[in-house]
Amino acid sequence: MFELNKKIKDLVPYEPISGEYKIRLDANESPFELSEEIMQKIIDVITKVNFNRYPDPNCTELTQAFASYYKINPINVAVGNGSDELISVIESAFLCKGEKLLVINPDFSMYQFYSKICEIECMVTNKDNSYKIDVNQLINKINSDKISAAIFSNPCNPTAQGLLKEDVKHLINNVNALVILDEAYMDFWDQSLINEAHEYDNLIVLRTASKAVGFASLRLGFAISNVKIINAIKAVKSPYNVNSISQAIGTTIYNNSEILEKNKKIIVNNTKMLYNELMKISEIHKNFVVFETNANFVFIKTDLCVKIFNYLEKNSVAIRKFDGFLRITSGSLEENSAVIYLINKFFVEEV
Ligand SMILES: *Cc1c(COP(=O)(O)O)cnc(C)c1O
Fold it and tell me: Which end of the chain is least crowded, N or C, by CB within 10 Å?
């Protein structure tokens, strides 16, 4: 009889929050719908797609548009089917069986997930109660434990904490390991290494169109690094990983950067509002600790997380619950006001 092997036999398909919610603040997506103008541009480019042909394996036009938006050289960019695909490809190709990958928890759970599938050894170190990364401690750990690669998000999902650019550079410069720097939320902050990624021999920066850019539906992720590493990523990825429709729409979006800039500013302001209002709650309720944020969501430590999560769910609001923590994505001003109103109401009614 055929048996599933032990690394996959207990796995279950990924289930995002299911059901109908009036307000979705669970996945760090952008709250914006498309303007008429950009929708028309998208429709126009879709009509020009050659549907009978395979997509461009190099994503030439998309890479050009992405690179010019971020003022980098297209030779330093590889495109993935979401940055999720790139994480999986990089972990499986840049590390050999038995080599060690370091993750710093809490962080994006997929890092550890993919390491199990590709049979590399995943070492986990935990952040302290500030949830900040201690760079010198990390350097010691990487060097003394002979770690081949370290991966972390900056700003971090779910903690919303950011590491200054100088600290990240200090890390890259003092380890022999590959540093995979996931900047999924860096559009909301100003400490990116995207413009310097090509200067290092051991750095890969990851970006995505799913968060600030507002196109989680397209599945577009980007790796930025030196040419040697970029060519290796292009060589190991599946050739037609990014479909022609996503390439065409992605190109249009990055070539229309005014919209991106405008939406980004609104999201940053809305997040400040959400944070300030949550802080007011935390000043009254000591059991509700709100962390400062460098991203488009707020991280909260509370014993009441199951109760608050359930209360919001009952009121058709989805947020994300972790063990002892909540993560609330900043949505539109109306959505943020609604979640604040409900959390205040929760404390009146249920505590
Ligand atoms: C959302 C997220 C991603 C996934 O991005 P996709 O491009 O949608 O696959 C990667 N890393 C972090 C930290 C994220 O939060």
Answer: N
Q: Is 82 in the pocket of ligand 1 (CB under 6 A)?
A: yes
By most ligand atoms within 8 Å of CB, the mutation choice from 28, 83, 182 for ligand 1 is 83
What's the pLDDT tens digit per position in 282-337? Answer: 999 999 999 999 999 999 999 999 999 999 999 999 999 999 999 999 999 999 99
Query: pLDDT for 136-169, tens place per residue?
Result: 999 999 999 999 999 999 999 999 999 999 999 9
What six digits make up the tokens of 127?
Answer: 């952040």
Name residues of the chain where pLDDT drops below 70: none
Distance linking the first and last C-alpha atoms of the chain: 54
The contacts found for 234-240 with CB under 8 angstroms, 24 or more apart, are 234/57, 234/58, 234/78, 236/89, 236/92, 236/93, 237/78, 237/80, 237/85, 237/86, 237/89, 239/54, 239/57, 240/54, 240/55, 240/57
Q: For ligand 1, atom 12, which residue shows the shortest CA distance?
A: 184
Read off φ and ψ for residue 243, nearest 5 degrees: -70, 160
The response to whether residue 208 sits with its C-beta less than 6 Å from ligand 1 reads yes
Q: Is the CB of 210 under 6 A from ligand 1?
A: yes
Residue nearest to atom 15 of ligand 1 (CA): 157
Instruction: Determine if ligand 1 sits within 6 Å of the CB of residue 108.
Output: yes
Residues 6+ apart with CB under 8 A from 232: 93, 94
What mean pLDDT value characterizes the chain?
Answer: 96
Which among 130, 195, 121, 174 has a CA at the least distance from the CA of 156?
Answer: 130
What tokens were used for 53? 């042909």
Of 133, 151, 157, 215, the one to substitute when testing ligand 1's pocket (max ligand atoms within 8 A of C-beta) is 157
CA atoms within 13 A on the CB side of 229: 26
192 Cβ inside 6 Å of ligand 1: no
